[in-house]
Amino acid sequence: MKIFLTDYRTASTDKTELFDDVLYPQEVHWFPDTYRNVKTGLIYPPHKLAEKVLDKPLMDSLKQTKVGKTAFILASGNAHFAGINPRMARESRLTYQYKFLPLSLTQVYAGRVAQACGANDYIATDATACVSSLKVMMDVQTLIKVYGYARVVVLTVEDAVSHSVLDFFGESGACLTEDQKQKNGVLPSAFDDVNYGFYVGQGAALAVFESEDSLVRTPTAELVGAWTASEEINNAIGQREDGQGYARAIDGVLHYSGISADEVKVIKTHGTGTKSNNASETTAILSRFTDFVATSFKQKIGHTMGASGLLETALMVEACKNNQVPSIENKTSGDERFLSKPTDFPEGLCLSLAAGMGNVYSAALFDMRV
Question: How far apart are CA 110 and CA 125, in angstroms?
Fold first, then answer.
């Protein structure tokens, strides 16, 4: 039973703005309109961001087109969106008090959206941190292949640009702050000897997956397989430099799919550009693949947290349509594998990787040749 990605919508931006009114000043990829009128307490930024991909004609079409059992998954990275009651050191443009707290619970919001698209046979949320939206590819796979679902709709959105997130990532040094940028003279990049890191970003994606027996839309890509794994480590927010977690996820998806490593030609990396991830992901990839090209989207659109895995995979689908694998932003030296320049999309499968705090790693294989 094959599974196809048949429709999708994305929201992201390559534009940045310096937030100098937060505890750790940093540039951010964001949509200012998602915070418009938040001071009234009637507007909730994650919902406004999600609206950018909840295309009404598509939602109406999904509701009107019955295909059998239909599921809905909200991959939000958390059980509760981050922006409510944050640890806040100062007032800023991100400060607000939302008046309808029950609606900020991700499962409540999932129920609302699921009913709007007619996906009411199964409704669930996923809170697996930054791996969330790629991890649920394993759930899509299980629902369709094991439980006979005809369609699974996935919405992914997280409250990335909020006090809680910016303070946490700024304090931990995980993202590139203005202080780091000015002191070290670096720009966001990944797998580079000079530049490193990422900015936080807002982003969302809506994706529709259908079984081959229930297709009512033209397939865009095939979900060949998905796998999620962990690794042995004593630090729940750390990574092993030998790449054990990534390697386990890669081995799992290759084995499950019955695919050899030689068939994978494009790798969409997690690519945060941090020292630990550069080491971990590079080691795992080079231990499993030889003939490939790899890229990262986070330096272009920011780290959209739980939304990043599926959102970046959808952007890779778009890149395939244009027959080009984009380069990694701000690379300072030539690299034909971890791309410093765009290249033609090679013939073969695309592997999408993601990692999340709590020592979780996901891998999903896609075939764009449909």
Answer: 7
Question: Which of residues 50 and 369 earns the better pLDDT score?
Answer: 50
pLDDT tier at 236 (50, 70, 90 boundaries)?
A: confident
In the predicted model, is pLDDT for residue 89 greater than 80? no
pLDDT, greater one: 199 or 218: 199
| Spatial distance between the Cα atoms of 194 and 362, rounded to a whole number of angstroms | 28
CA angle centred on 319, ends 278 and 271, rounded to 5°: 10
- The DSSP bridge pattern shows strands 122-126 and 70-75 to be parallel
Q: Which of 304, 340, 329 is nearest to 13 (CA)?
A: 304
pLDDT at 78 exceeding the cut of 90: no
Compute the distance between CA of residue 239 and CA of residue 254 in angstroms, rounded to an integer: 22
Residues 6+ positions from 116 with CB-CB distance below 8 Å:
54, 59, 63
- Three-state secondary-structure class, residue 246: helix
pLDDT digit string, tens, across residues 163-180: 889 998 999 888 999 999
Per the DSSP assignment, residues forming a β-bridge with 206 are: 9, 155
pLDDT class for 105, splitting at 50, 70, 90? Answer: confident
Cα–Cα dist 86/89, whole Å: 9
The two structure tokens encoding residue 264? 């994978």
Q: Which residue has the tokens 């709590």?
A: 358
User: In which band, very low, low, confident or very high, does the pLDDT at 297 lie, cut at 50, 70 and 90?
Assistant: very high
Helix locations, 190-307, DSSP H: 244-257, 275-288, 298-301
Nearest Cα to Cα of residue 114 among 125, 103, 105: 125
Side-by-side strand order, sheet with 293-295: 122-126, 70-75, 151-157, 204-211, 3-11, 221-230, 360-367, 349-356, 264-268, 293-295
State how beta strands 151-157 and 70-75 pair.
Answer: parallel
Report the mean per-residue pLDDT for the chain: 94
The identity of residue 65, as a single letter, is: T
Contacts of 286 (CB under 8 A, 6+ apart): none
State the burial class of residue 154 (Cβ atoms within 10 Å of its Cβ: 0-12, 13-18, 19+).
buried
What distance in Å separates the CA atoms of residue 19 and residue 17, rounded to the nearest whole number?
Answer: 6
pLDDT at 88 over 80: no
End-to-end CA distance of the chain: 15
